[in-house]
C-alpha cells in the first residue's frame, strides 16, 4: 500500500530519494482521485522497485503549489529526486501499469 506523506516528509521521502518515486497528489473530495486510489495501491504492491507515496493536497498544499499541481489526481514521477514526468487525471489500471512498467525497467 502506498505511504501517506506530508509536506514535512517530502524532502526525505521524495526529493532526497535515489531511484524512482511515484507521488500521487490527491484530495478526499475528488471523485477521480477515489477511482485512482486502488489502481495506485495495486501498483505499489506489484512493483517493489519503485516508491509509491501519496500527498493529500487538502492538508498539504505547500508541495502541491511548489510543483504547480492545479488539477488532481496528479501523479508526478521523480527520478533521483527530480521530476521526470507527470500524469494528470484518472488512469485505468492497464494504462497506468504501462507507465509504471516503463519506469520499473529504467
From TrEMBL:
GO BP: cell redox homeostasis
Q: Where is the Thioredoxin domain?
A: 1-105
Is the Electron transport keyword given for this protein?
yes
Q: Can you list the GO cellular component terms from the UniProt entry?
A: cytosol
> Keywords assigned by UniProt?
Disulfide bond, Electron transport, Redox-active center, Transport
Positions of the record's site feature: Deprotonates C-terminal active site Cys: 24
Q: Where is this site: Contributes to redox potential value?
A: 31-32
Q: Cystine bridges: which residues?
A: 30-33
Q: Name one GO molecular function term.
A: protein-disulfide reductase activity
In this protein, the active site sits at 30 (nucleophile), 33 (nucleophile)
PROSITE patterns, per database record = THIOREDOXIN_1, THIOREDOXIN_2
Instruction: Please give the Pfam families that the UniProt record associates with this protein.
Output: Thioredoxin
Which family would the database say this protein is a member of?
Belongs to the thioredoxin family.
> Which NCBIfam families does the record match to this protein?
thioredoxin
Q: What is this protein called?
A: Thioredoxin
Q: What is the lineage of its organism?
A: Bacteria, Bacillati, Saganbacteria
Amino acid at each position: 500500500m502506498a505511504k501517506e506523506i506530508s509536506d514535512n516528509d517530502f524532502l526525505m521521502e521524495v526529493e532526497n530519494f535515489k531511484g524512482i518515486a511515484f507521488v500521487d497528489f490527491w484530495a478526499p473530495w475528488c471523485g477521480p482521485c477515489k477511482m485512482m486510489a486502488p489502481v495506485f495501491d495495486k501498483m505499489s504492491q506489484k512493483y517493489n522497485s519503485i516508491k509509491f507515496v501519496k500527498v493529500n493536497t487538502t492538508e498539504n498544499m505547500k508541495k502541491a503549489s511548489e510543483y504547480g499541481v492545479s488539477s488532481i489526481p496528479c501523479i508526478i514521477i521523480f527520478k533521483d529526486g527530480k521530476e521526470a514526468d507527470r500524469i494528470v487525471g484518472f488512469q485505468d489500471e492497464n494504462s497506468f501499469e504501462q507507465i509504471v512498467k516503463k519506469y520499473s525497467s529504467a
